UniProtKB/TrEMBL annotation, chain A:
Domain (ABC transporter): residue spans on this chain: 6-237, 253-498
Record-level Gene Ontology MF annotations: ATP binding; ATP hydrolysis activity
Subcellular location: Cell membrane
Pfam families in UniProt: ABC_tran (PF00005)
Keyword Ribonucleoprotein found: no
CDD domains xref list: ABC_Carb_Monos_I, ABC_Carb_Monos_II
Matches recorded under InterPro entries: AAA+_ATPase, ABC_carbohydrate_import_ATPase, ABC_transporter-like_ATP-bd, ABC_transporter-like_CS, P-loop_NTPase
Organism: Lutimaribacter pacificus
Keywords: ATP-binding, Cell membrane, Membrane, Nucleotide-binding, Repeat, Sugar transport, Translocase, Transport
Protein name according to UniProt: Nucleoside ABC transporter ATP-binding protein
TrEMBL record, chain B:
Topology term for the membrane: Multi-pass membrane protein
Keyword Iron-sulfur included in the entry's annotation: no
Protein known as: Nucleoside ABC transporter membrane protein
Organism encoding this protein: Lutimaribacter pacificus
Transmembrane segments: 12-37, 65-83, 95-111, 117-140, 149-171, 202-220, 249-267, 287-311, 323-344
Automatic annotation (TrEMBL), chain C:
Top-rank lineage group of the source organism: Bacteria
UniProt keyword Membrane present: yes
Pfam family of the protein (one): BPD_transp_2
Lineage: Bacteria, Pseudomonadati, Pseudomonadota, Alphaproteobacteria, Rhodobacterales
Topology in membrane: Multi-pass membrane protein
Annotated InterPro entries: ABC_transp_permease
GO MF annotation, one: transmembrane transporter activity
Record-given protein name: Nucleoside ABC transporter membrane protein
Regions crossing the membrane: 6-25, 37-58, 64-84, 96-114, 145-161, 192-214, 220-238, 245-265, 271-289
Subcellular localization, as worded in the UniProt entry: Cell membrane
Length: 505, 360, 306
C-alpha cells in the first residue's frame, strides 16, 4: 500500500501579524503514520485545521485520492474520510459517551444500536468503554478513547491526531500505539502531530517538520536521531539547563494528611496527601492531567482552605489562611492557566504585577496602591526575565504564551519566596522560554527556596527535580529520588494504565 | 461579509468614542422614530437636546437638569461598582423606594418638632434603608448562592407594594382629607431638602452625587478594594488567586449600591417630590442602569451620562407639551441608547474587517 | 372574611389559566438557556407580545391572528438581543436588561389608543365528553386552546431535547460551544434560532395575558411575570416537566392571593400582592443549592477565533 492518499501543495494561511503557514507542501500515503513535528507555534494546529475544514487556506491546494479536496466545513471533511482526534475542546462533559459520539457522526443510528456498535468497535481495537457513562467522569485516557472511537465509527481513510499522548501514562501510550498499528495495517493513514521525538521515532514512518509556519524538511524518523530532528525543529542546537550542586536545608513545606474536596463537579478530590520539600530542593510531581493537580495548587495557594495543620510552612500551620496571608509568609504559587487565573487578560502588566506582588513588594500603603512602585516592579520582572513586550502598560493578553509565562513565573521568583509552587510551568511555551523558565527554577532552588513543580512533562521533571512523585486520582505515589527511576517505574507510579482493562485481540 | 477579529488589547480610542457614536446613532434612529410618529424629526431632536440648555426658558430648565441628574448619578455610581465586579444589582428602584420610606418615616416621626438634627437623621435612615434592602440579595447570594439579579428585581415589586401600603396606611397624612400620601415634607422645614442656593436646583442630593463621583474615582483608581472590584469583573479566578474574598466584595458592592440608591430616594422624597405617595418613584433605578453603562462604568463617564439622560427627561417633557410627543417615545429613545451602546461596544475589543469570500 | 366565596373548582380551573403565560414564557426561556444563552429580556418580550397581539386582534377581529402576531413580535424583539449577543458579542446580562427596558417603552408607545378597549373574545374549547366529568371536567377540560397548546409545547420540548438529534445538538451547544464548533455545528445560527423560539414563546405568553386572561391592555401589565418565568427555569433545574410543575405552583399562588383579596381576608391587599414575588425569592433560595444542572456554557459569549 504505497498509493498517495493526501497531497498538500503550497498551503498558506496568514493571520494579522503572523503567517501561520507559509507555502507548506507534503504528501501522506495510505497506511502510513506521518508525523507532523514542530514546536508550539510552528503552525501545526493551523495546518490540520485546514485539512479538517475548520480553517480555509488563503492559497494552496489539497488533493485527496487524486481528486481536488477543499472541505468547506468539518462535515465535508468527515464525508471525505478525514477524521480528527482533538487535543482539547471536543467533548461534552455533561453528555454520555454515546451522545458524544452521535454528535460527531453524520447519520447516527438510534441510540441503542449506536451503543452496541460502540461496544463492538471498542473491543475490536482494544479500547473498552461503557457507552452510557457520563464523559465528565472519565479519565483523560478514557476520554481520548471516546474521541478515537468516534472517529473510527466513520471508517476514516485519514485519522488526524493532535498531541494524543500528552494526557497518557507511558503504559497507555503503548496501548494507543498498538491500536494505531492495527489501524494502519487496515490501510488507514494517520497524521500524527507531536513534539515528542522518541515517540515519533517509535511510531512514525515519515515525518514533516515545521518551523515558524514553513516546511523545513522531511525525514524517516527511524533513521534519524532525536537530536537531529530537534535541531531541525528548533533551528539551532539547544541547551540543557545547568544544575549546580545544592545544599538542602530545613523542611520548608510540610503537607500532612491533606484531603480536599474538589470545588467542581468533574474535578478530582485530594485524598490524604503527605509530602515535604526542603529548602533548596526541587520536588517534581508528575501525573496525567486531571488527577488533582489543579486542586493541589489551589490548596497550596489558599484558594481552597484546608485543616490548619494539613499544610505547614516552616513549621507554622497555614491551612486556614487565605492567599494574601500565605504570600506574606513566603508561600508563592503560579497556577497552570496563565490567562484568567495567574493573570487578568485585559489588565496591564503593571496591574498584573500588583496582583500578587502587592504585599511582599510593598505596593500598598493604608489600602492605597502605589502605582509608580508597581510599575517599577513590573519593569524589573520584564527586564530580568527577558519578557518581550512594548512595556508594562501592555495588556497581559497581548503577550505570547511564552512571554506571559516568563512574566508570571518571574513575578513570583522576584518576590524571593520561601516556597514556590508551580503547575505546568512550561505548558504551551516555546523551547527557549521553557529553557529559561527551568533555569530560573533551578537558580531559585540554588538560593535556598523550596520548589514544588507540578507538571505533565516527564522530561522536564527528570531534568530539574531532585525527588519525584506522581498524582493519580487525587492520591500521591511514594516519593523517590529522581535519578534512580526508570521509565517503567515512573509509569507505574503514575497509575500504570489507570486500571483500565486492556482488551487482547 | 464582515468578520470580527480580536484586538490584542482593548482600544483606548474606542473606549471613549463608543458612547459618542451610540448617542449619535440613537439621535438618528430617534429622528426616524419621531418622523414615524408624525413629528418633525429635526425639531424633535432639537427640542430634546437643545431647548433645555439654550432656549429662552433655559434658566428654568437648567436647574431641573441637576434635580433629575443627581439621583441618576448617585444610583448609577453605586450600580457601576457591582457591574464592574460582575455583581448585577438591578433592584435599585426598590432600594430607592425603601430609602425614601425610611428617611421620610424618620422625619415624619419627629413632626412637628423643629431641630437641626432631624434632616441628618433622615439622611442616615435613607441610606440605611436602601442598604438593608440591598443586603437581602447580598446575603442570600453569599449564604446560598442565590441569583442576585432575580432577587433584587423581585424586591422592586415588593417595595412598590410596601410603598402603596405606607402611603395608604402608616405614613398617610392624618390631615390629608383621606387622600393617599404622606404630609408634604417641603412644608416641614427641619425635614426639607431645600435648594442650597435658591433657583439653582442645587440640593444636598446634588452635592452627594458629586462627592460619590469623586470617591468612586479614587476607590477604583487608587485603592486596593477598587482594584479588587475591577479584577473580579475581569478575571474572577485571578481575583480569588490574588486573595479577594468574593463574599466581602458582594456585600460591599450591593451594600454601597443600596445605600446610594436609598440616599437618592431620601433626597427626592424630602426635596423635589416632597411626599411619600403611591407613584412617587418614576423609574430612576432602572434608568440609572442605562446611565451606568453609557458612562462605561467609569465615575466621570457616569457624571456625563447622568447629565445627558437628565436632558432627555427634561427635553422629553418639553417635547411632550410642545409637540405632543408621547412620553413612551422618550422611554423607547432611552432604551435605544443602551442598545446602540452595547452594539457599538464591540469595537473596543474587536476590529471589524471586511472579508471578501474567495472561491476556495 | 368569607372563605365560602372561594369555589375550589373555579380556583383550580383559573389556576390553569393563570399558569399558562408563565408556562409559555418559561418553556421558551428554557430552550434558550439550554442552548447556553441567558436572555433576561423575557419581561420585555412578553409585554411587546402582549400589545402586538392585542393591537392585531383588535384590528383584525381575530384573536388567533393576534396570537400569531404576538409570537412574531416577541421573536422580532428577541432578534435584537440575538444581534447584540451573537454578532456584537455584548454582555448577555446587559443586553437582556436593555431588551426589557426597551420593550417596556416600545409597548407603551404602541399601546397608545388601545387602553380601555375590549379585545375580540377568545373561544373556549369544551372537550366533548371529558368536559362533562364532574369536578375534573370544569377544572381540566373547559379551557381555551392556548392552555392545551402550552401543555403540548412542554411535551414537545421535552421530547425534542431528549430524543431527537436537533435536541442533542442544542444541548451540546449549551454545554460546550467550542467543542460544538470544532465538530462543525453552527453555534451562532443554532443560538439565534433558540433565542427566537424563546422570543416567540414569551410574546405568546404576553398576548395570553392581554387577550384572554385579563383581557384588556394596560401599560406594564405583565408586572414581573417575565422575571418570574426566568426564576422558574432555575427552579425547574432546566427540565421541561418541572417548568410545568413550577408554573402551576405559581399560578396557584397568584390565583389564591387574588381570591383571598376578593374574599376580604384581614391581611392588607398589598401584602397579598407581594406574595408571589416573595415566594419566588424563597424558591430561588431553596433551589440555589442545586447548581449542577445549569448548562455549562450559560451566559458565555462565543467567538470562533481562528
Amino acid at each position: 500500500m504505497t498509493d498517495t492518499l493526501l497531497t498538500i501543495e503550497g498551503l498558506t494561511k496568514a493571520y494579522p501579524g503572523v503567517v501561520a503557514n507559509d507555502n507548506v507542501s507534503f504528501a501522506i500515503r495510505e497506511g502510513e503514520v506521518h508525523a507532523l513535528l514542530g514546536e508550539n507555534g510552528a503552525g501545526k494546529s493551523t495546518l490540520v485545521k485546514m485539512i479538517y475544514g475548520l480553517v480555509k487556506p488563503d492559497s494552496g491546494t489539497m488533493t485527496l485520492r487524486g481528486a481536488p479536496y477543499a472541505p468547506a466545513e468539518p462535515r465535508a471533511a468527515r464525508a471525505a474520510g478525514v477524521a480528527m482526534v482533538f487535543q482539547h475542546f471536543s467533548l461534552f462533559d455533561a453528555l454520555n459517551v454515546a451522545e458524544n459520539i452521535a454528535l460527531g457522526m453524520e447519520n447516527p443510528p438510534p441510540m441503542r444500536d449506536l451503543a452496541a456498535r460502540i461496544r463492538e468497535v471498542s473491543e475490536t481495537y482494544g479500547l473498552p468503554i461503557d457507552p452510557y457513562r457520563t464523559v465528565g467522569d472519565l479519565s483523560a485516557g478514557e476520554r481520548q478513547r471516546v474521541e478515537i472511537i468516534r472517529c473510527l465509527l466513520q471508517d476514516p481513510r485519514l485519522l488526524i491526531m493532535d498531541e494524543p499522548t500528552s494526557v497518557l501514562t507511558p503504559q497507555e501510550v503503548e496501548i494507543l500505539f498498538q491500536t494505531l498499528r492495527k489501524l494502519t495495517a487496515e490501510g488507514v493513514a494517520i497524521l500524527y502531530i507531536s513534539h515528542k521525538l522518541e515517540e515519533i521515532r517509535a511510531l512514525c514512518d515519515q515525518a514533516t517538520i515545521l518551523r515558524l509556519g514553513r516546511n523545513v524538511g522531511t525525514c524517516v524518523p527511524a533513521g534519524t536521531t532525536a537530536r537531529e530532528m530537534a535541531e531541525m525543529m528548533v533551528g539551532s542546537a539547544f541547551q540543557a539547563p545547568e544544575r549546580a550542586p545544592r545544599e538542602l536545608g530545613e523542611v520548608a513545606l510540610d503537607i500532612t494528611g491533606l484531603s480536599v474536596r474538589s470545588p467542581s463537579e468533574f474535578g478530582t478530590s485530594l485524598k490524604n496527601l503527605h509530602l515535604t520539600v526542603r529548602a533548596g530542593e526541587i520536588l517534581g510531581l508528575g501525573g496525567v492531567a486531571g488527577n488533582g493537580q489543579d486542586e493541589l495548587l489551589a490548596a497550596l495557594s489558599g484558594e481552597l482552605r484546608t485543616d490548619a495543620d494539613a499544610i505547614r510552612l516552616k513549621g507554622r500551620p497555614i491551612g486556614r489562611l487565605g492567599p494574601a496571608a500565605r504570600r506574606q509568609l513566603g508561600l508563592l504559587t503560579a497556577p497552570e492557566e496563565r490567562l484568567g487565573h495567574a493573570a487578568a487578560p485585559d489588565m496591564s502588566l503593571t496591574e498584573n504585577a500588583a496582583l500578587t506582588g502587592a504585599q511582599r513588594e510593598g505596593l500598598v500603603a493604608n489600602g492605597f496602591l502605589k502605582w509608580g512602585k508597581a510599575r517599577e516592579f513590573a519593569e524589573a520582572v520584564i527586564a530580568r526575565f527577558d519578557v518581550r513586550t512594548p512595556g508594562p502598560g501592555t495588556a497581559a493578553r497581548a503577550l505570547s504564551g511564552g512571554n506571559l509565562q516568563k512574566f508570571v513565573i518571574g513575578r513570583e521568583v522576584m518576590q524571593r519566596p520561601e516556597v514556590l509552587v508551580v503547575n505546568q510551568p512550561t505548558w504551551g511555551v516555546d523551547a527557549s522560554a521553557a529553557a529559561a523558565i527551568r533555569q530560573a527554577l533551578l537558580d531559585l532552588a540554588g538560593t535556598g527556596t523550596a520548589v514544588l513543580v507540578i507538571s505533565q512533562d516527564l522530561d522536564e521533571l527528570m531534568e530539574i527535580s531532585d525527588r519525584f512523585g506522581a498524582l493519580n486520582e487525587g492520591r500521591l505515589s511514594d516519593i523517590r529520588p529522581a535519578q534512580e527511576l526508570s521509565v517503567d517505574e515512573i509509569g507505574l507510579m503514575m497509575g500504570g494504565a489507570h486500571g483500565m482493562e486492556v482488551a487482547h485481540v | 461579509m464582515l468578520t470580527l477579529e480580536k484586538r490584542p488589547q482593548p482600544s483606548r480610542l474606542w473606549t471613549y468614542l463608543t458612547p459618542v457614536v451610540a448617542v449619535i446613532l440613537t439621535m438618528l434612529a430617534g429622528a426616524v422614530l419621531f418622523a414615524f410618529l408624525g413629528k418633525d424629526p429635526v425639531q424633535s431632536i432639537r427640542t430634546i437636546f437643545w431647548e433645555p440648555l439654550f432656549s429662552e426658558f433655559a434658566f428654568y430648565y437648567r436647574p431641573q437638569l441637576l434635580v433629575k441628574g443627581a439621583p441618576l448619578v448617585l444610583i448609577a455610581i453605586g450600580l457601576s461598582l457591582g457591574f464592574r465586579a460582575g455583581i448585577w444589582n438591578i433592584g435599585a428602584e426598590g432600594q430607592y423606594i425603601i430609602g425614601a420610606i425610611c428617611g421620610a418615616g424618620v422625619g415624619l416621626a419627629f413632626y412637628p418638632m423643629e431641630a437641626w438634627f432631624i434632616f441628618p437623621l433622615m439622611v442616615l435612615a435613607g441610606a440605611l434603608g436602601g442598604w438593608a434592602w440591598a443586603m437581602i440579595p447580598a446575603l442570600l447570594k453569599v449564604r446560598f448562592g442565590t441569583n442576585e439579579i432575580l432577587v433584587s428585581l423581585m424586591l422592586v415589586y415588593v417595595a412598590e407594594q410596601l410603598l402603596a401600603s405606607m402611603s395608604l396606611g402608616l405614613l398617610k397624612n392624618p390631615e390629608g382629607f383621606g387622600f393617599p400620601g404622606s404630609r408634604n415634607l417641603q412644608q416641614y422645614p427641619s425635614a426639607h431638602n431645600a435648594e442650597l442656593i435658591a433657583g439653582s436646583g442645587m440640593h444636598w442630593g446634588v452635592v452627594s452625587a458629586l462627592v460619590a463621583v469623586i470617591l468612586a474615582y479614587i476607590l477604583l483608581n487608587r485603592h486596593m478594594l477598587g482594584f479588587h472590584i475591577r479584577l473580579t469583573g475581569e478575571a474572577p479566578r485571578a481575583a480569588r488567586f490574588a486573595g479577594v474574598n468574593p463574599a466581602r466584595l458582594i456585600l460591599f458592592c450591593l451594600g454601597t449600591a443600596g445605600a446610594l440608591a436609598g440616599l437618592a430616594g431620601l433626597f427626592e422624597v424630602s426635596g423635589p417630590s416632597g411626599q411619600v405617595s403611591i407613584d412617587f418613584n418614576v423609574g430612576y433605578g432602572f434608568t440609572a442602569i442605562i446611565v451606568a453603562f453609557l458612562g462605561r462604568l467609569h465615575p466621570i463617564g457616569i457624571l456625563l451620562a447622568g447629565g445627558l439622560m437628565a436632558l432627555t427627561y427634561i427635553g422629553g417633557e418639553i417635547a411632550q407639551s410642545k409637540l405632543g410627543l408621547p412620553a413612551a417615545a422618550i422611554q423607547v429613545f432611552q432604551g435605544m441608547l443602551l442598545f446602540f451602546l452595547l452594539a457599538v461596544d464591540v469595537t473596543t475589543n474587536y476590529r471589524i474587517r471586511r472579508v471578501t469570500r474567495e472561491v476556495a | 372574611m368569607d372563605f365560602g366565596s372561594i369555589n375550589p373548582i373555579l380556583l383550580l380551573a383559573s389556576l390553569m389559566v393563570a399558569a399558562t403565560p408563565l408556562l409559555l414564557a418559561a418553556i421558551g426561556e428554557l430552550v434558550v438557556e439550554r442552548a447556553g444563552v441567558l436572555n433576561l429580556g423575557v419581561e420585555g418580550m412578553m409585554i411587546t407580545g402582549a400589545i402586538c397581539g392585542f393591537a392585531i386582534a383588535v384590528n383584525t377581529g381575530s384573536p388567533i391572528v393576534g396570537l400569531v402576531a404576538a409570537a412574531a413580535g416577541g421573536a422580532a424583539l428577541s432578534l435584537l438581543f440575538a444581534v447584540l449577543t451573537q454578532f456584537a458579542l455584548a454582555n448577555q446580562v446587559a443586553s437582556g436588561l436593555s431588551l426589557t427596558l426597551f420593550g417596556l417603552g416600545l409597548s407603551a408607545l404602541l399601546g397608545q389608543g388601545y387602553q380601555g378597549i375590549k379585545p375580540p373574545p377568545f373561544p373556549r374549547v369544551d372537550i366533548p365528553l371529558l368536559s362533562d366529568i364532574p369536578v375534573l371536567g370544569p377544572i381540566l377540560f373547559r379551557h381555551d386552546i392556548v392552555v392545551y397548546f402550552g401543555l403540548a409545547l412542554v411535551a414537545a420540548v421535552w421530547w425534542v431535547l431528549k430524543n431527537t438529534r436537533a435536541g442533542l445538538i442544542l444541548r451540546a451547544v449549551g454545554e460546550n460551544h467550542d467543542a460544538a464548533h470544532a465538530l462543525g455545528y453552527k453555534v451562532v445560527r443554532i443560538r439565534i434560532l433558540a433565542i427566537m423560539f424563546g422570543g416567540a414563546c414569551a410574546g405568546l405568553g404576553g398576548a395570553y395575558i392581554s387577550l384572554i386572561r385579563v383581557p384588556q391592555w394596560t401599560e406594564g401589565m405583565t408586572a414581573g411575570i417575565g422575571w418570574i418565568a426566568l426564576a422558574l427555569v432555575v427552579f425547574a433545574s432546566w427540565k421541561p416537566w418541572r417548568v410545568m410543575l413550577g408554573a402551576y405552583l405559581f399560578g396557584g399562588i397568584t390565583v389564591l392571593q387574588l381570591n383571598l383579596q376578593a374574599a376580604g381576608v384581614a391581611i392588607p391587599v398589598e401584602y397579598l400582592a407581594m406574595s408571589p414575588y416573595l415566594i419566588t425569592i424563597l424558591v430561588l433560595v431553596i433551589m440555589s443549592a442545586d447548581k449542577s444542572r445549569a448548562p455549562a456554557a450559560l451566559g458565555r459569549s462565543f467567538h470562533a477565533s481562528q
